[in-house]
Amino acid sequence: MKLRHYVIRRLFLLIPVLIGVSMLTFTLSHVIGDPIAAYITSQDLRLSDLQMQKIVTAHHLNDPLYSQYYYYVMDLLRGDWGISRTDSDRPVLVSIQNYFPATAELALVSMFFALIVGIPIGIISAVRKDKPADHATRVFSLVGVSTPVFWLALILQYVFYYQFKVHNLPNLPASGRVNQFLWLDHPLHVITGIYSIDSLITGNFSIFFDVLVHLILPAFALSYVFMAVFVRMMRSSMLEVMRQDYITLARSKGLSERVVIYRHALRNAMIPTVTVAGLAFGGLLAGAVLTETVFSWPGVGRWSTSAIVRDDIASIMGFMLIIAIVYMLANLIVDLLYAWIDPRIRLG
Amino acid sequence: MKMSEKKTSNKKAIAAIVVILIVVVGGLAGYYYAYLPSSRPMVPNPDTYVFSTFGDVDKMDPSVMYDTASGEVAELTLETLVYYKMPGSTTEIGPKLAKSWDMSPDGTVYTFHLDPAAKFNDGSPITADDVKYSIDRTILIGDPDGPAPTLHMHIKGAADYLLCETCWGATNDTMVQAYLNAGGVKVIDPQTVQITLDAPYAPFLATMAFTSASVVNKKIVEANGGVKPGFRNDWMNQHGTEVGSGPYKLTEWTPKTRVVLDRNDNYWGTPAKFKRIIINEVDEVGTRELALFSGDADTITLPATNLFDVIQKDAWLNNRQIVPVKPGITVSLDPTYTVSPNFGMNTKWKDPVTGAVPFGNKDFRYGFSYAFDYTTFINTVINGAGIQGVGPIPPGMFGYNEQLVKSLQFSFSPDKAKQYFLNAKAAGAYADGQVITLYYNTGNEARRRGCLLLKDAIEGLGVGLTIQVQELDWPTFLAKQRAKELPIFFIGWAPDFADPDDYVPVFANGQTGTFARRQGFDDPTIDQKLSQASIESDPAKRQALYNDIETWLFQQAYTIWGAVPLNIQVSRDWVKGWFFNPMFSGPNTSPAAYGMYKEERTDQVAITVGPLPAFIATVATLVVPNYARKSA
Amino acid sequence: MTQMGQVKTSVERKSKSWFDEHAPQIRELKFTLYLLRQSPIVVAGFILVALFIGMAIFAPWIAPHGPEERFWNLPQQPPSWRFPFGTDTTGGDIYSRIIWGSRLDLTIALTVVASAILIGSVLGAISGFMGRAFDEALMRVTDVFLAFPALILAMAVAAALGRNLTNLTIALMVVWWPTYARLVRGQVLAEKERLYVDAARAVGASPARIIFRHVLPNSIFPVIVQATLDLGGVILTAAGLSFIGFGAGAGVAEWGLMIADGRSYLFQSPWIACFPGLAILLSSLGLNLIGDGLRDVLDPRLRR
Hints:
The structure holds three protein chains of three kinds.
Chain A: H1 3-31, H2 49-58, H3 65-78, E1 83-84, E2 90-91, H4 92-127, H5 132-146, H6 149-166, H7 180-185, H8 195-201, H9 205-242, H10 245-252, H11 257-295, H12 300-309, H13 313-341, H14 343-347
Chain B: H1 3-35, E1 48-53, H2 68-77, E2 82-84, E3 93-95, E4 98-103, E5 109-114, H3 128-141, H4 148-151, H5 158-163, H6 173-182, E6 185-189, E7 192-196, H7 204-207, H8 218-223, H9 234-239, E8 248-254, E9 258-263, E10 276-281, H10 285-294, E11 299-300, H11 313-319, E12 329-335, E13 339-345, H12 362-371, H13 374-381, E14 386-388, H14 402-408, H15 414-426, E15 434-441, H16 445-461, E16 465-472, H17 474-482, E17 488-493, H18 500-508, H19 514-519, H20 524-535, H21 539-556, E18 559-561, E19 563-572, E20 575-576, E21 597-598, H22 611-630
Helix pairs in contact in B: 1-22, 12-15, 18-20, 20-21
Chain C: H1 2-14, H2 18-21, H3 23-38, H4 40-62, H5 94-130, H6 132-146, H7 150-161, H8 165-192, H9 195-203, H10 207-244, H11 255-263, H12 271-298, H13 300-303
Helix pairs in contact in C: 4-5, 4-12, 5-6, 5-8, 5-10, 5-12, 6-8, 7-8, 7-10, 8-10, 10-11, 10-12, 11-12
């Protein structure tokens, strides 16, 4: 089937999952305390019965469950995701709009970093199988997936921020996205919310470099685990591929080893890795929650942890929904890439 | 792989690494030199004051804000008719927007004469209309969790409106009209405002000094949503501190990140010295401390539990001497009017499993009161930055009776505690295996440790009680408290106005007191005495009434009075002109409105390590290990 | 004579032991164990895991102090002979608390993974075998659960249930079972096509019997590998949740919580946060080493 059809089919398949996800958030929101709390602002803790009644009626909270669910979905589609009590009573969608670009920036940079470091190491590990390099990378990758990301973030802060500062070395910043004085002196015209892109587009280079410097520690902490995953994945899929007959054929044709690896093996080995990248992205989002908290990074992860310890239902559910959507889209993109690379998938 | 190929690919790998290193280092060094502000200035940002704290502003609308972070911004940007005489007075009220005022002989009518020079930060003059508008606004919005019910009940017509259940979350036109018709706030002429009270109320002027009585620019507020009685104004929640008359005005509020205030160059009084104030929100104490030491922040908030990060422990604990651990820091510890933390017991709490109502039994409460290690809490947990709790009236305030309090205070006595618990158990207040959960609000380290102290002591008595300690965040905490779901919880109070009437009813009036209601007790005699004391003008009689009430409170032991903390001010020593007033919501920043400044210095500060070589070292340690593995 | 011989043989055939019947699988198992012993990675993993299990079991004897024994007058002490890893903010001995904490985290990990396997395998097996409606339904349900990263779903469920260790365990169980459901279902689908299943059906064996006696035993190996890796993953997620504030109440000796406590004093007393993190790392590492080694060993293509 054509690629177009494949895309459409996959998009359609998303819908039942989205419905299921909304059912899950709906159920959870009814379990976490009173569903009315999603529509009450932070200090409306002393509403009279009359006011409560009004809100209950307005949001159909006394109707049978299936009816409530219907209104819930209608609200979601209309853009009413509730009020974020922990974010000064802003509407949840506004909070997400404010905080999501920061998380996206962090996640993308981490992913990029994990890929460009992890993949080459994985390849080398496969090529030099069972040599010291291979064992070293295996250990590195196993340590990587065993490290608690929030602990790693703390250690990085301690070494590269505190110890460096205390010894009068230029240090890496441990919190925030940008130096406040630079921010005020060179105001950034924010377009996407991803400061590195915005500053490049508007030619604001002081902010650009500063943002990159602020990204170093959090992105490294976040990417470390995934670097390990990619190393592992590349290694095993390279090994898999290199055992294939067509590789032996290429070699016997007299092609140099480098051509064999880069031209033939690599492309096929990338496929499972690309798949894993999609799944890894989900883990990246989860890791972002912890990393953002440690680095005071103003993204959705930090917002969600403060929301969750305060039983801010609307924010938690909004966060769950947006994460599910992003994760599904990421996997969809991965599947599409996969289908584009390997025609067998969509024809099969 | 052929040998020659291997060598070439190795060489290429090394070459690639070197190129990348040069590019990265070059880029970062370039950035460092070109764009980062001078890293070792003598006094950084001489005309900007940087304050690093935790806790974000909640709302910028003076009519509904009721937390210290928001109050701090309001104190710099908005003004009231009157204010405490600066620098340190908490009892004498002096003029601010009102140049003078008269009180009627019966004490119910106050006439304020506005200062004709007073104007808003946009240049427009402040008129009586604006004043009436601002005060009416606070009352008509009537936010039940805001300041109005505590502060403005005594204005004629306000009590009925504020107590009316159908006036919040809905606009009750009848009640609104009734309030306006009562004429509590009247415009006599453009420069004169008259406020009439229900009955004479001694602390009235003090209540007009609180942020809830701030005057806002009517024209601008009307253009942005105006007043909708019973509802908050979203625009004002975000921008309220932009439309005042104070020495600063709000320029930027990035939630959870920073608040930026710029000097009001249209200010009608003596202009402030700082051009700009930046309030940064940084949750981690360690990061704030480092910012202070490196000069990135001029003042920081420091919890008592971190006190010895900035001053020497022995000098303080043994001699009450403040000796900073690093040069260039000044630390000031000042007594406050804050009464916190205290453990409030819910006398009506019923264990859902066992059905026991342990805190209804006086002996049980006495057990708890004797089981708290007050000394360790004060000296070890809050590092001596406070004194043991003295009941609802803090030292220094009218009504404080030191002798009485010292005779009534509990002390840590495991034997007595055990005895009282056993008595309570014998009387059936609880059975072996009873679990009590102590809650503290997230992030509050002193309270967490206080809970653990109680837990260790009580469980160590072996009287069949198990104590669990749980963390809860503030609004959930409040909600559960209200719903009387918590057996024992933290309560505390900071001053709105400096009078026992702001404090004692809260803890003692079972009908209207915020905490007393949650603790589930009510003694009509005491409620009577409280109302009497509120309007009593003879100081001796007032004192006697408060003595009775305090004695009763201590003897009932509804509350474990934990501490009266000291205010901790930690600044760089180039900050001058700071002073403390316990009535400030924002003691760290508010003095800026009264002439705080940074002194100029000309001495050189040595730079110990050259930036470029150190930078290469930084980058190398980050980058090389990854690539070293690659070429192994 | 012949009669006697015949009787003998039939008796022999009837009393064929379970071991003889499963002789090929047992040989396979012995070979696997041999390969495992050869792999240095697996051996290292076993040592680490044994260390932590030993810690958990013998805690009352090895730990110098109790898990909630606080020396209020000695807060934030740096490591010393008396307190090898220092003390925390309320004077608890970090070394002892790490030892006691191993009980909590290992119990949680085992409970979660065991339950997830149980629930997931049963559901997955039934689903794979029954096919059609039930299968579709189960697949959609697992899709929904797998649409969320583990930590995030666990966060929401834990928030819904309330903050204590039991609910944390339940939340993690809810998050982990779909993986096993899918895994076992896949195995079952593959096995379904095999001849012996048709044969068993022809003989009249019930579906349950087929699942339990034939299909499940053949699906064990991938499940074991996944389980070992997941044990490490659960420890990390549980620690992450405790770090945010969703697990043990204050004062309890739990690794994630200890790191959270140490965070405010990271610069002044780094040992409070550092050592519990190492404990998490090493215990998780041990499990991952075993899992990784197992996977290599069990991969049929790498065995020959």
